[in-house]
Amino acid sequence: MRQSQSFIPTLREIPADAEVKSHQLLLRAGFIRQSASGVYTFLPLGQRVLQKVEAIIREEMNRAGAIELLMPALQQAELWQESGRWYSYGPELMRLKDRHERDFALGPTHEEVITALVRDEVRTYKKLPLTLYQIQTKFRDEKRPRFGLLRGREFIMKDAYSFHTSKESLDDVYNKMYEAYSNIFRRCGLNFRAVIADSGAIGGKDTHEFMVLSEIGEDTIAYSDASDYAANIEMAPVVTTYEKSEELLRPLEKVHTPEQKTIEEVSAFLQVSKEKCIKSLLFKVDDRYVLVLVRGDHEANDVKVKNVFEASIVELASPEETKEVMRCSIGSLGPIGVDESVTVIADYAVQAIVNGVCGANEEGYHYVGVNPDRDFNVSQYTDLRFIQEGDPSPDGKGTIRFARGIEVGHVFKLGTRYSEAMNATYLDENGRIQTMIMGCYGIGVSRLLAAIAEQFGDENGLVWPAAVAPFHVHLILVNQKADEQRELAEEWYEKLGQAGFEVLYDDRPERPGVKFADSDLIGIPVRVTVGKRASEGIVEVKVRQTRESMEVHVNELVETVKRLLQSS
Length: 568
Ligand SMILES: O=C(C[C@@H]1CCCCN1)Cn1cnc2cc(Cl)c(F)cc2c1=O
Ligand SMILES: [Mg+2]
Hints:
Blueprint: H1 21-28, E1 32-36, E2 39-42, H2 44-63, E3 67-68, E4 74-76, H3 77-83, H4 85-88, E5 95-97, E6 103-106, H5 111-121, E7 130-139, E8 154-164, H6 167-187, E9 192-196, E10 207-213, E11 219-224, E12 230-232, E13 253-256, H7 263-269, E14 278-285, E15 288-295, H8 302-309, E16 314-316, H9 319-326, E17 343-347, H10 348-351, E18 356-362, E19 365-370, E20 380-382, E21 400-415, H11 417-421, E22 425-427, E23 433-435, E24 437-444, H12 445-456, E25 473-477, H13 483-498, E26 503-506, H14 512-522, E27 526-530, E28 538-543, E29 549-553, H15 557-566
Parallel strand pairs: 3-7, 15-17, 17-20, 25-26, 25-27
Antiparallel strand pairs: 1-2, 4-6, 5-6, 7-8, 8-24, 9-10, 10-21, 11-12, 11-21, 13-19, 14-15, 14-16, 18-19, 21-24, 22-23, 27-28, 28-29
Helix pairs in contact: 1-12, 2-6, 2-12
Family: Belongs to the class-II aminoacyl-tRNA synthetase family. ProS type 1 subfamily.
Organism: Anoxybacteroides amylolyticum
Subcellular location: Cytoplasm
């Protein structure tokens, strides 16, 4: 493509509201433009990278035996009412009415649509297993869209769904997808980890997230420093055991702790270590209240709370709800004298506390000399806290360290969550009606583009691995007034194209400095500069990622470019 006839609006300055590198660079290099909050236009270069990423995804999906189709974004509410999710999702689900006042959703995902399709079209075990996928626009009305394509409200996802007659068949496809995902992210040049993840509200066990390691990742990965164990921190089980100290039990005593609310304040005021304080948090779990107890130096893990009750929605009770239910404010909550309508559960660490401290459920008062089992009961002790750095790794090897990651893929064993609710059944070999077993597998395609930009971008601009670059070669004509330069550039624009390379030719009447700055911004892997030594047939070749540059005679140009592209 000739740059003088393309549409690549680069920017000199860093856009004010872009906080992370990939967002800044994709805007500055003319790859995307924001249309609305969390809604983007992919400009020509952005669209070309999308197509490269999608081509890799299609190759690996097809190789794994998945079959591509395309489902509608408009989803009628009746399907979501059948699955029950019409009522369980909140403002994140974008809803609208058609001209006949009928309810629709703009699809955030497609379990309902695909299950309805397969239940109507597949009636016999002979047609299973079946794995279908699409690459399609999704809509999720995020409360806080941020970081450009990393968290948008309209984005592109590859979502696949598999249907099986047995768990073994699901396991087989799950493993094939796991393998395909590893190939996809490796071919995109990404440094990723597959981590054990929480299956979220969609139920079903066994789920992995594929995380690209990045300091700006929203997810925290807990990984072992001595094995390949890695889990989303939401899911990482805590295997620490706690010794009860031998000290004598002291009497329970209520003490006045005016204005002392947080664990830090209370432990300092009472001169008691945080390990002996009980942190009590009131959660709303679906439609009931649960008081969660963790040790003062630990954090309650809301996903573990959710999984205890297999709930859809878990959130901290508001200050008003807390006052109403516990008749005191958040800073004075405790497990002693709790209304029986409130379920009390505690992390294992709490059970080992001796002569501890907890809120008295009375404004400005706490208890000291608190001993679990003697002074309060809980409905269950279980693993409720976030794992911490330094904790033993759940696989027994080494200790846990943290890393941050961007989730780019997520694979689930769904089981019969949707096929049950929507009656997707088939006749087995004995003519008996059975419910299909399902799996689902997602990749954030537009998010992947930003994750690649995040991982490879440097202070001068984007850096694209050859496999996903918008073009292979950026051909720069230094001085279009110099005949020998222009002629050599024109000749090699044709020849490099004939050699099979995708060439972006900067033939614009711009100063060289502008051309080189734009070329660094756009990040095409190999730059060929036609300048002063054109009359000798010498051009400069530069590798964007390593900045390595060399002078090459045009007779060796094709071989040189081929070699350089293979290694970038
Ligand atoms: O999407 C999934 C699971 C898998 C991921 C891979 C591809 C198939 N789906 C989970 N999820 C996430 N956010 C959602 C947001 C809304 Cl508003 C919703 F209504 C539903 C969902 C929802 O179900
Ligand atoms: Mg996920």
